[in-house]
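Many introductory courses stop at the sequence. We go one step further.
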Amino acid sequence: MIDQLWLIPLGFAAGVLGSMIGLGGGIIVVPVLTFLGFPPTVAASNSLFAALSNSIASTISYSKQRRIEYSLGLKLGLLSIPGTILGALFSTNVAPDVFKILFGFVLIASATYIFLRKKIESKEKKTSKQLMIFAIGASFFAGIISSFFGIGGGIIFVPLMVAGMGMAMKKAAPTSQMILLFASLSGVVVHSLLGHPDFLQSGLLAFGSFIGGLVGARLSLDIKERYLQILVSLVILIASAKLFFDSLSGIPF
C-alpha cells in the first residue's frame, strides 16, 4: 500500500482542477496512469472512482453555495446512465494503442474547450424542442465517453449547458458535477461487475479526489481562471501529444 500512496496527491490535484472547471479529474488521472503502463480498463475504471468521489464532494460544496440547477442536472444525469453501461462494456477489449489515440483526441477537445470557455460563455441561446432532443443524444454519448475513458463526461455537459442553453459558467460547472455523480456512479458499478478496477488504487485516488473536490469548489469562488486555463490546456495538449507518439510508435509501418 505504501508504494501506491502517490495516488492520493494525484487524486487531489485532479479533484481540484476537475471541480473548478467542471470536466471531472479524469483528464488528469487517466493520462498519468496510461503513461505509467496501466491497462486501459484499469486506468478508466480507477479514474471513475476518483470522478465519483470528486463529484460527491463538489456537489455537496456547490449545493451549499446554491449554484446547482437540480432539475436539469437530474434529467441529464439519468439520461447518461445507459451510455455509461455501454461505455464500460466497450472498454473491455480495447487495445492500448487504440485507447491512447482516442483519448488523445478527447484531451485535445478538452484543452480547446478550457481555453475557449469564456468565448463560449458569451454566447446566449435559449432552450427549444430541438435542443432538448440534442441534449438527450448528447447525454447518452457523454455517458459512453465517461465510462469508456473514465473522465466523467463533463466535456460534453458543460459546453451543452453554456453554449446551448445559455447557462452562466458559475452554474454550469457545478451542475455538471451533479450530472457526473450519476454518470460516474453507474460507470463504477458496471466496471466493478466486470472486474476492471483495482480497489486499493481506486480507493486512494478517490480519497485524494474527495478532498480536492472540496478545495476546488471553494477556490472557484475567488480564483482568476485565465492563467489556470492556459496552464491546464498546455499540460493536456502535451499529454495528448505523448499519447499519440506512444501509440504511433508501436504501429509498424
